[in-house]
Amino acid sequence: MPEVNERAYYAQRASTAAKLADLAEDPKIAAIHRGMAASYRELAEMPPATRQLRWAD
């Protein structure tokens, strides 16, 4: 069940980022939001075992 919740979470974040991209007046900001949406969609599709956050050293 946690996997479903994580997928739903990332799918919702992707949707929100896509909406923000549509609303952004600055093309640079819109591009950032589109990139974030793509990343969230990718995370939503990943199996939990491969979904890891890496922190900068």
Q: What order do the SSEs take from the amino end to the carboxyl end, as H and E?
A: HH
Poorly predicted regions are none
Question: Main sheet?
Answer: none
Please count the helical segments. Answer: 2
The whole-number mean of residue pLDDT values reads 86
Give the amount of beta strand, in percent.
under 5%
Rg on CA atoms, Å: 13 Å
What does the overall shape look like? elongated
Helix content: over 70%
Q: How many strand segments?
A: 0
- Which class of secondary structure composition applies to the elements? mainly alpha
- End-to-end C-alpha gap: 32 Å
Short description:
This protein has 57 residues and is mainly alpha-helical. It is built from two helices and no strands.
Topology, pairings included?
Blueprint: H1 2-23, H2 27-45
Helix pairs in contact: 1-2
Describe the 3D structure.
There is one protein chain. The protein is mainly alpha-helical and 57 residues long. The chain has helices at residues 2-23, 27-45. Helix 1 packs antiparallel against helix 2. The chain is elongated and about 35 Å long.
Key features of this structure:
mainly alpha, 57 residues
